[in-house]
Write a structure and sequence with these properties.
Shape: globular
Pfam family, one: oligo_HPY
Main location: membrane
Subcellular location: Cell membrane
Membrane topology: Peripheral membrane protein
Strand content: 15-25%
InterPro entries: AAA+_ATPase (IPR003593), ABC_Ni/Peptide_Import (IPR050388), ABC_transporter-like_ATP-bd (IPR003439), Oligopep_ABC_C (IPR013563), P-loop_NTPase (IPR027417)
CATH superfamily of the largest domain: P-loop containing nucleotide triphosphate hydrolases
Number of strands: 13
Largest sheet: 8 strands, mixed
Order of helices and strands: EEEHEEEHEHHHHHEHEHEEHHHHEEHH
Radius of gyration: 21 Å
């Protein structure tokens, strides 16, 4: 199947510094949900901004391929990019109340993409906006249409953002931490709503989260990011139930285990290194207990492993899994493994 979204060798840097995203490759098929998972600072949101070409002015981006539904996003003129955003790629952000315009009503904000991208009149856009609000599960949609952002709860605000993102019936939705800061009940409702809309529209999705528990219910495949690199890819079942990379294993432990045997809170030691702190070798090595257990810290410090297939369709960027697998090697793109 031809990929809807193709990313190959994506690199993003700021002001000539070391890249914050380093040779990232990923494919998303039509109708597929691919989750990007990792701690804050791993490059997930920057990857999403790269796809829509909405990076900050200081960012410098390069890629061998950045293509959406056959369109080269690297060379597309601004008018074409503006048409793709909204019409074909929808965006959903965390902290929805901050993303909504405090001076415009809900109906005005939901109606704006309908007027801009679909050419609706003001009256038609208002009527369709009310229908969209009802479609995303907002009670009393006509009344809510006249509300302002400060009058909405977090859950209602996110439903409004979903209505805006889906107004143009996009083929791809990029959802960046859409359940952050929502209580557990509302989080489940939003995930169920996104899953329902995906099924209704046949829509693909890039779902960004720091929480494997959240993506478990919605993702077909998962790509785990660490310090600007994809370190493991696989189906949701593979990543959640048989992770290969030490970082992924630590994330799954954080998602399922609150405390160690002695009652202390389980945490991954250390922090994600910034781009300026990265040197040669595996980027996770300073925090990796597996490297210490296997006595291969020197190897991990000296050379970064490639993203290698694990034999079951998944791939891992770890010397332990590579050495266990044997001499067979692949290229480092991760494209096939992530496809």
């Amino acid at each position: 199947m031809t990929a809807l979204l193709e990313i190959e060798d994506l690199t993003v840097a700021f002001n000539g510094a070391r890249p914050v995203i380093d040779n990232l490759s990923l494919e998303v098929a039509p109708g597929e949900v691919v989750a990007l998972v990792g701690e804050s600072g791993s490059g997930k949101s920057m990857t999403a901004m790269s796809v829509t070409r909405l990076l900050p002015p200081a960012a410098r981006m390069s890629a061998s391929t950045l293509r959406f539904d056959g369109t080269d996003l690297l060379t597309a003129p601004d008018a074409r990019l503006n048409k793709i955003r909204g019409d074909h790629i929808g965006m959903l952000f965390q902290q929805p109340k901050r993303m909504l315009d405090p001076t415009a009503t809900v109906a005005q904000q939901v109606g704006e993409p309908l007027r801009r991208h679909l050419g609706m009149s003001r009256k038609a856009a208002h009527e369709h906006a009310v229908e969209l609000l009802a479609d995303v599960g907002i009670a009393e949609p006509e009344r809510r249409a006249g509300s302002y952002a400060h009058q909405l709860s977090g859950g209602i605000a996110q439903r409004v953002m979903i209505a805006i993102a889906l107004a143009g019936r996009p083929e791809l939705l990029i959802a960046d931490e859409p359940t952050t800061a929502l209580d557990v009940t509302v989080e489940v409702q939003i995930l169920q709503l996104l899953a329902a809309k995906r099924a209704q529209y046949g829509m693909a999705m890039v779902f960004i989260s720091h929480d494997l528990r959240v993506v478990a219910s919605i993702a077909d495949r998962i790509a785990v990011m660490y310090a600007g690199r994809i370190v493991e890819t696989g189906t949701a079942d593979q990543i959640l139930n048989a992770p290969q990379h030490p970082y992924t294993k630590a994330l799954t432990t954080c998602s399922t285990l609150c405390c160690n045997d002695d009652g202390s809170l389980y945490v991954i030691p250390g922090d994600v290194r910034s781009a300026q702190e990265i040197t040669a070798g595996c980027r996770f090595q300073p925090r990796c207990e597996v490297a210490r257990e296997h006595g291969i810290q020197a190897k991990c410090r000296g050379e970064e492993p490639a993203l290698e297939p694990c034999g079951d369709g998944s791939a891992s960027r770890c010397w332990v899994t590579i050495d266990r697998k044997g001499p067979e090697r692949s290229d480092d793109s991760g494209k096939g493994a992530a496809a």
